[in-house]
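# nightly structure sweep
# worker-07 picked up a monomer target from the shared queue
# config: single-sequence mode, recycle default, output format = structure tokens
# input follows
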Amino acid sequence: MVPQKGSTSLGNFREATETAHWAVRLQPGFWLARQALAACLSGTGRNEAAADYTATLRQSYPDLSALEFAAWVPYAGRHYALAVAQALAQAGWR
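# output follows
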């Protein structure tokens, strides 16, 4: 069982980092796991690692903005994707 802590959509990146790492270990090719980890790394100042994940994701989804990519997650409202989109943009998603 994966322990769930924090919420990337609320900007709780430090608390969500452990869960994001677990998700990537369990499903390394799953876009949502990689998106969450990139956002968590960026949101906690680990910009170089975040940039690596973001660059890989960006290659797979080149036509999407950071907000469009973050909004793939079915949040209760689009505004919840903003924290994730801002973290991805900070990590180099343009």
